[in-house]
Amino acid sequence: MTPVRLDRIADAEPGAHGHDWVIDVRSPAEYADDHLPGAINLPVLDDAERARVGTIYKQQSPFLARKIGAALVARNAARHIEERLAAFDGGWRPLVYCWRGGQRSGSFGTILSQIGWRVGVLEGGYKSWRRLVTETLEAPVAPPVVVLDGNTGTAKTAVLARLAEGGAQVIDLEGLARHRGSVFGEHAGGQPSQRLFEGRLARALAALDPARPLILEAESARIGALRLPGRLWRAMVEAPRIEIAAPIAARARWLVDAYDDIVADPARLGATLERLRPMHPAERIAAWGAMASEGRYAALAEALMVEHYDPGYARARARGRPPERVIATDALGPAEIDRLAGAVRAAAEALAAARPSA
Question: Which CATH architecture has domain 2-135?
């Protein structure tokens, strides 16, 4: 077996380490919480087995726990070899890791190497990856940050996507968090764990060009249930802001299209409106519910913006810095999104160039 070391985030990118597969041998729950980029899960102990061995280790005997664990590992390894790994020839090169790079990865790696495969074992295991993620998130954000702001429904996420397509330097925080950043923002399947989100964010940050502006959509300190790292959040708070301004009717039409998954699910829409009850009078909640029941979705979107979202944005802006640029549009169709993306990119580059040098 060959030890493999991660010194940079980029070292963990698929293909960077010269191995064909990255195999996480931890339990399914550990894997679901977070894992290396591109890793697959071939657990040598499942969740119940890991809990059982751990209990025996603490309450009975470390020797007994290791003996029972060894039998379980051998049994599970045999199953993986007979099933998932059966088709590979002698040239296949796997990289194996567990929590700390100890017994689980060592045991599985030894078995695979005895077959004849050239096995790499990750030094320090998953914890070496997590250390790199933490170091990246705690470091200063290298490029000049510019924040794209605007009230709900101003198509900021679509503009951000168009900027990325055009080669601008962008991180889609809501995309990484699988959440649209509002009470209506949940996606089917839910959000990733905090650690998995942080790992994806660290990879995006590590790949940035420090000489070019980084454009981020304005967010609160949380996106759904996930927290933004403190260093990045502070950089966003202190960054110059570009605001998109659009008429409320255009914003309402945009929201109905952008949230079509919620519009198509009356039960989900009604349940989400109920979550706003602690913040609004009962008659207002009832009026919103009536609009939803009658299919008046554009009217509902306008009411929500006027009575809920826009006042919240105004309060948040009063506590922060005013926008350095305001880019207005009368509509939010494809042509307007193209124009907005071009104007935002030009403004971001100008603001970054005007930033005082360190």
Answer: 3-Layer(aba) Sandwich (3.40)
Q: Which residues contact 152 (CB under 8 A, 6 or more apart)?
A: 182, 251, 255, 304, 305, 309, 310, 313
CATH number of 141-353: 3.40.50
Q: Annotated catalytic sites, by residue?
A: 98
pTM of the predicted model, to two decimals?
0.92
Q: Judge contact between 148 and 344, C-beta under 8 A.
A: yes
Where do the structural domains in the chain lie, given as residue ranges?
A: 2-135, 141-353
Write the CA distances from 85 to 27, 92, 115, 157, integer angstroms. 18, 10, 11, 41
Tens digits of pLDDT across the chain (358 residues): 899 999 999 999 988 989 999 999 999 999 999 999 999 999 999 999 999 999 999 999 999 999 999 999 999 999 999 999 999 999 999 999 999 988 899 999 999 999 999 999 999 999 999 999 999 999 999 999 999 999 999 999 999 999 999 999 999 999 999 999 888 888 888 999 999 999 999 999 999 999 999 999 999 999 999 999 999 999 999 999 999 999 999 999 999 999 999 999 999 999 999 999 999 999 999 999 999 999 999 999 999 999 999 998 888 877 878 999 999 999 999 999 999 999 999 999 999 998 775 5
